[in-house]
Amino acid sequence: MDTKTAIAANKIDLKSPKKSTWAQMKKMKLLYFMLLFPAIMLFIFNYLPMYGVIISFKNFSPGLGIWGSPWNNFEHFERLFTDFMFIRALKNTIFISLLKIIIAFPAPIIFAILLNEIRNQKFLKVTQSISYLPHFMSWVILSAMIIEVFSPQRGIVNFIITAFGGDPVNFLSSKLFFIPVLILTDIWKEIGYGAIIYLATIASIDPALYEAAEMDGANRLKKMLHITLPSIMPMVIILFILRLGGILNAGFDQILNLYNPLVYEVADIIDTYVYRSGLEQFQFDYATAVGLFKNIIGIIFILGANAIIRRRSEHGIW
């Protein structure tokens, strides 16, 4: 091969990836067209409103508008760390969120592995359907059900307690019991739907691995521990990193519909604090500053967790 032929071949090789990528995009043009609408919605409702973050640096007045309002020299951010109510909400948010990560995050993983071991298909379908149902119900509806279940006068839980000679307990007004109720009801609502992605990952495992393990004498428990768990671990790590990014999201809808002033000391979180400050007290600029602080912390947690995991393993988001 002469020099000119080699150069021509190299040019073709360099251009071929671009051509193949464009050809693939043309083949999947309908899928890209379908992706266009969610992308537009994401831009309109998630990125355009970021313009309003400016008011966190201003003493916002609706009459003056965003740009007409005076700058405040980071006054709202200084107030964050001197406001007792915010400090308490921050502590509660971190505490509740960590409990949900420690207790609620592994629940769908365990549930998915257990579902995978069910051999009766009818029983499996019924179990999955029942477990998925709460996810598709809003916390407004579920909270009304939970309030009735734990009611001191009418609730079945207190009926059982009194039947065994105990005294009725007002779970949702008790600082001791409110957080456990939050964790348990959160697991109940999301365990079935959260297991779907793990079941899909388990379904992609090569059956030959299980067959080889059976030939070596492995029982079902050993196959779960040495094949199923390691195979879904990359997905677990990715979802764990994303969950850490929401460390300051402790469940706004759930808590707003369940809590009351008697449990503010343990249940008031950043989102409910922002709700009261912004919509009830009309401190839009301060509420925006609190929300911006929360999002910055979330980004730091995602970047930090991903960097640490990438150093110790080959898995990560990027």
UniProtKB/TrEMBL annotation:
Q: Which InterPro entries match?
A: MetI-like, MetI-like_sf, UgpAE/MalFG_permease
Report which gene this protein is encoded by. ugpA_25
Q: What PANTHER family does this protein map onto?
A: BLL4140 PROTEIN
Q: By what name is this protein known? A: Transmembrane lipoprotein
Q: Where is the ABC transmembrane type-1 domain?
A: 90-305
Compartments annotated for it: namely: Cell membrane
Q: Which family does it belong to?
A: Belongs to the binding-protein-dependent transport system permease family.
> What species does this protein belong to?
Lederbergia lenta
CC annotations in GO: plasma membrane
